[in-house]
From TrEMBL:
Its main location: other. Transmembrane segments: none annotated. One of its GO terms (biological process) is nucleotide catabolic process. Residues 322-476 form the 5'-Nucleotidase C-terminal domain. It is found in: Cell envelope. Belongs to the 5'-nucleotidase family. This is 2,3-cyclic-nucleotide 2-phosphodiesterase. PANTHER family: 2',3'-CYCLIC-NUCLEOTIDE 2'-PHOSPHODIESTERASE_3'-NUCLEOTIDASE, 5'-NUCLEOTIDASE-RELATED. The lineage of its organism: Bacteria, Bacillati, Bacillota, Bacilli, Lactobacillales. GO terms for molecular function: 2',3'-cyclic-nucleotide 2'-phosphodiesterase activity; 3'-nucleotidase activity; metal ion binding; nucleotide binding. Residues 4-232 form the Calcineurin-like phosphoesterase domain.
Length: 517
C-alpha cells in the first residue's frame, strides 16, 4: 500500500494568482492553483491520502490584510482555506501578526483541526490538540504539529502575552515515542526550516533555534517531515527521512509517498520518496475563484483608493541600486517612521525585490504592495557603539566580486532571500566601505554633523521585528525599547499621506556605499 502526504506551506493569504500590484493578473502561484494540483494528486493516488496546511496562511497578501484590518471578519479568508480539503493544519509564526485574539477568532471558523504541541499556555497546548490521529484504509496515522519557537524574538509582546514557546526538538522527542505506540505512521508538520546543509550537515546559518529541521530528522520514529517558514523549495531524504518544503504563496505543493507493508502488528514503512509539484502552470480552482470573487472585487476597489500625489519620481527602478544609493521612496518611509515616533533617526529596509515605489498618484495598492509586513514601530535608545555595530552588521550585506565590484553577499540571497536584513538609516550620515574587513567597514558616522560617540545615547525608530533583535541584531533587544507606536505601518503610511496629500520626492544621500557604482 502507498500513503501519500500532500502539503502546502507559507501561502500567506495569496488565495488568488495575483500579488495585487495591478488588476487581473494570473501569476504562477496561489492557493487556488494549489487546490487544483492537490485535487489532481488525490485523484491519481494509489492509496490513502493525507493533506496538511503547514502554517503562515493568515497574513501576507493585501487580501489577508484587508480581512484583518478593514473588514475584521476572518471567516472571509478561512472559508477559502476550508474549500481546499485539508485534514489538519498547523500554526505559523505570521499567524500571530494580528494578535492571538484574532488568531483564535480565525481558528474557530476553520473546518479542519489545527494542531500544535509546543506553544503552551498555563502548561497546556494553547491552540487545539498537540497532534491529530487519522485512520485511512486501516492505516493509523499520527500528525504532530510544531512551530518555530523563535517567535518571541520577533513578535510584539502584546500579541503573544501569556504564551510559552517550548523547544521544538525536545517537544518532538517527548511526543514521537507516544505517537509510535498509537500509530503505524508518524508525520511531523513543522513550521520551521533547515539550519544545516541537507547533504553535509554543515550549518548554513547561525544555530539560534529558529530552524531545526535537520535536527528533527535525527529524532527516532519520524516517518515524514513537512516543513516551511524559509520559503525554500526542497524535497528529498535527509538522514533517511523524507522531507518537503514547498516554497511561497502556493507556488508548489509537497508530496511524500510512503510504501507500507502490512504486518501482524500493523503497517510498516518500507520505502519513501519526496517531490515537489509546481502549481504555476495549472488553472486556478473554479471553486476558490467563485468563493473569493466578491471579496476580491471589494479588495481591488479598496486598493485603488487614491491617497496622495507625488512631485518628482519615487519609483524604484533597480532594487540593488536603491540599497546602495538612497532613493526617495526609502527616505519617505524614514520620514513616516520619524514623524510617527517623534525621533530624528530611523532605520528601514527595502524588504524584497518586488516593490516598485510610488508613481505620480499614490493609492492603497502602492502602500500595501511596497510595505508588505504588518509591522509596528518601536524606539530604541542605543549607544553610539550599538548604532555602529548595527551598521557593521548591515554592511555584511555587501561583498566584492572577482572584479572588485559591489555585489550581494550570497547568504542574503540563498538559501532564502533576506534582503529585509539590510537596513538603511536616516538622520545620520555614514559611509560603508566594502573594501575593508567585516567589522571595520563603517568609515564615517555623523549625527548632526558631529562624530557619533560610542557612549552617547541616540533614539532610533525601527520596526518591531528589528527592535526585538530580529535578523540576529544582538545589539538590539526589548530591553532597549523606550516607547512604541502600536499602529500598523501600513496605517501610519496612509495617515501620513492623508495629512500630506502632495509628497515631494527627495533623497538627501546621507549614506554611501563604496566602491561606488
Amino acid at each position: 500500500m502507498k500513503l501519500t502526504i500532500l502539503s502546502t506551506s507559507d501561502t500567506h493569504g495569496f488565495v488568488l494568482p495575483t500579488n495585487y500590484v495591478k488588476r487581473d493578473q494570473d501569476l504562477p502561484f496561489s492557493l487556488a492553483k494549489a487546490k487544483t494540483v492537490l485535487d489532481a494528486q488525490k485523484a491519481a493516488a494509489e492509496g490513502p491520502v493525507v493533506t496538511i496546511e503547514n502554517g503562515d496562511w493568515l497574513q501576507g497578501s493585501p487580501l489577508a490584510y484587508y480581512v484583518a484590518k478593514i473588514s475584521k471578519q476572518p471567516d472571509q479568508l478561512t472559508r477559502l482555506y476550508n474549500e481546499v480539503g485539508y485534514d489538519a493544519g498547523i500554526i505559523g509564526n505570521h499567524e500571530f501578526n494580528y494578535g492571538s485574539d484574532y488568531l483564535r477568532q480565525a481558528l474557530k471558523t476553520l473546518t479542519y483541526p489545527t494542531i500544535n504541541a509546543n506553544i503552551t499556555e498555563n502548561g497546556q497546548p494553547a491552540f487545539g490538540a498537540p497532534y491529530q490521529l487519522i485512520e485511512r484504509s486501516g492505516v493509523k496515522i499520527a500528525i504532530l504539529g510544531l512551530t518555530t519557537n523563535y517567535i518571541p524574538h520577533w513578535e510584539a509582546p502584546a500579541h503573544i502575552a501569556g504564551l510559552a514557546f517550548q523547544d521544538v526538538v525536545a517537544t518532538a522527542k517527548h511526543y514521537v515515542p507516544l505517537l509510535r505506540q498509537q500509530a503505524d505512521v508518524v508525520i511531523v508538520a513543522y513550521h520551521g526550516g533547515f539550519e544545516r546543509n541537507l547533504q553535509t550537515g554543515q550549518p548554513t546559518e547561525p544555530l539560534t533555534g529558529e530552524n531545526v529541521g535537520y535536527a528533527l530528522t535525527q529524532v527516532p520514529g519520524i516517518d515524514a517531515l513537512v516543513t516551511g517558514h524559509q520559503h525554500r523549495q526542497l524535497a528529498g531524504l535527509v538522514n533517511g527521512v523524507p522531507i518537503t518544503q514547498p516554497g511561497y504563496r502556493g507556488e508548489a505543493i509537497g508530496k511524500i509517498t510512503l510504501d507500507l507493508n502490512q504486518t501482524a502488528s500493523g503497517y510498516q514503512v518500507t520505502a519513501s520518496k519526496a517531490v515537489l509539484v509546481k502549481t504555476g502552470g495549472s488553472i486556478a480552482s473554479p471553486t476558490i475563484l467563485q468563493s473569493a470573487a466578491d471579496l476580491n472585487q471589494t479588495v481591488e476597489t479598496w486598493l485603488d483608493q487614491p491617497l496622495a500625489h507625488v512631485e518628482g519620481d519615487m519609483r524604484i527602478q533597480a532594487p540593488f541600486v536603491a540599497r546602495v544609493h538612497e532613493v526617495p521612496y526609502i527616505e519617505f518611509i524614514q520620514k513616516v517612521q520619524m514623524a510617527s515616533t517623534d525621533t530624528d533617526i530611523s532605520g528601514t529596509a527595502l524588504f524584497n525585490n518586488e516593490g516598485r515605489g510610488f508613481g505620480e498618484t499614490i493609492d492603497m495598492r502602492d502602500v500595501v504592495t511596497n510595505y508588505i509586513y504588518p509591522n509596528t514601530l518601536a524606539v530604541l535608545r542605543l549607544t553610539g557603539a550599538d548604532l555602529k555595530a548595527a551598521l557593521e552588521q548591515c554592511a555584511e550585506y555587501f561583498s566584492l566580486d572577482a572584479d572588485g565590484k559591489l555585489t550581494v553577499t550570497p547568504r542574503f540571497e540563498r538559501p532564502k532571500p533576506q534582503h529585509y536584513n539590510y537596513d538603511m538609516y536616516q538622520g545620520i550620515d555614514y559611509t560603508l566601505d566594502i573594501h575593508q574587513p567585516v567589522g571595520s567597514r563603517v568609515t564615517r558616522l555623523l549625527y548632526h554633523g558631529a562624530p557619533v560617540q560610542p557612549t552617547q545615547t541616540y533614539d532610533v525608530a525601527v520596526n518591531q521585528y528589528r527592535a526585538a533583535g530580529g535578523g540576529n541584531f544582538k545589539m538590539f533587544g526589548p530591553d532597549k525599547v523606550i516607547r512604541e507606536n502600536q499602529k500598523d505601518m501600513t496605517e501610519l503610511i496612509a495617515d501620513y499621506l492623508q495629512e500630506h496629500p502632495l509628497i515631494k520626492a527627495t533623497a538627501d544621500q546621507n549614506f554611501n556605499v563604496l566602491p561606488s557604482m
